[in-house]
Amino acid sequence: MAALVNLFKRNSVYVSTIFVGAFAFGIGFDLAMTKFWEYKNQGKLWKDIRHKYVQA
């Protein structure tokens, strides 16, 4: 019975690690792709050309 309890403890840590890792990877991947997209499209994005169309 004690081995079964230890397995559940390790399993919860294992599953928690997977969820936290997937969440962190998702955020990191999103940030990296956003930086890449902005770098490749520099000068074409709204934040870059807004001053041409919007007056204060």
In short:
The protein is mainly α and 56 residues long.
Brief descriptors of the model:
single chain, 56 residues, mainly alpha
Write structural notes for this entry.
With 56 residues, the protein is mostly helical. It is built from two helices and no strands.
Biggest β-sheet: count, sense, barrel?
none
Helix count equals: 2
Q: Structural class from helices and strands?
A: mainly alpha
Query: What order do the SSEs take from the amino end to the carboxyl end, as H and E?
Result: HH
Shape: rod-shaped
* Average pLDDT number: 87
Topology of helices and strands:
Elements (H helix, E strand, L loop, with lengths): L1 H39 L5 H8 L3
